[in-house]
Amino acid sequence: MRYNQVKDLVVWAEGFHQRMARQYSEAADRTDNERLTMVLTYLASRELRMQQGLDDLFHDGSDHRDVLETWFDESSEFPQPPELERLTEKSEWNSVDEIARMAVESNRKLQALYEHRASRAAIPPEAEFFNALAEGHEAEIRKLVSSMQKFDDI
C-alpha cells in the first residue's frame, strides 16, 4: 500500500521486535552452549523492551497521537526492503560475534529506516519523532556493543 500512517510503521516495528525476541528465545532454548544461551536470552529481553517502548507510544498520553495519525506517501516497498524480515528468520548461530553482528545490523537498518522517514517528513513534529527513534537506536547500538564485549569476557 502506497499511503500509510506513521502508526502503521510503528506497529510494524513493534512486530519486528517481537519476532526478533521470539527468534532469540527459541534459539536460546535450542543451544547447549551456556554463553550463547545467556547472550540470546539477553537479546530477547532487550527486543521485548524495545517492543514495549514502541507500544507505550500509543498509551503514554503524550503529544505523539497527532504524529502517529500523520499520513505519508511511500512509493518504495513499505516499510523496508525484505532484508529486515530475513533477519527474523535466522535460527542458528555459532558464536557471540555472529549474534552481535546480526543484532547490530538489525538496529542499524531500523535506524536507517527512521532516518529515511525523518528526511521525508511532511511536518516538523514527524521529523522530530523519527529523529528521536533513530537516535534511540544509535544509543541502543552503543549499549549493545558494550554488552556484547562483556559477554566476550565471560
Describe this entry's structure for a reader.
- With 154 residues, this protein is mainly α.
- 72% of the residues lie in helices and 4% in strands.
- Strands 1-2 form a two-stranded antiparallel ribbon.
- α1 (6-30) packs antiparallel against α2 (34-56) and α5 runs antiparallel to α6 (124-152).
- The protein is elongated, with a radius of gyration of 16 Å.
- The model has no long low-confidence stretch (mean pLDDT 87).
In the sheet with the most strands, the strands line up as: 1-2
The SSE string, one letter per element, is: EHHHEHHH
What radius of gyration results from the CA coordinates? 16 Å
Question: Which of globular, elongated, flat, extended, rod-shaped describes the shape?
Answer: elongated
- Enumerate the spans where pLDDT stays under 50 for 5 or more consecutive residues: none
Global mean pLDDT: 87
Please state roughly what percent of the residues sit in beta strands, choosing from under 5%, 5-15%, 15-25%, 25-35%, 35-45% or over 45%: under 5%
Largest sheet: 2 strands, antiparallel
Cα distance spanning the termini: 47 Å
Structural class: mainly alpha
Number of strands: 2
Instruction: State the helicity in percent bands.
Output: over 70%
Tally the helices: 6
Properties at a glance:
154 residues, mainly alpha, two-stranded antiparallel ribbon, 6 helices, 4% strand
Give the structure's gist in a few sentences.
The protein is mainly alpha-helical.
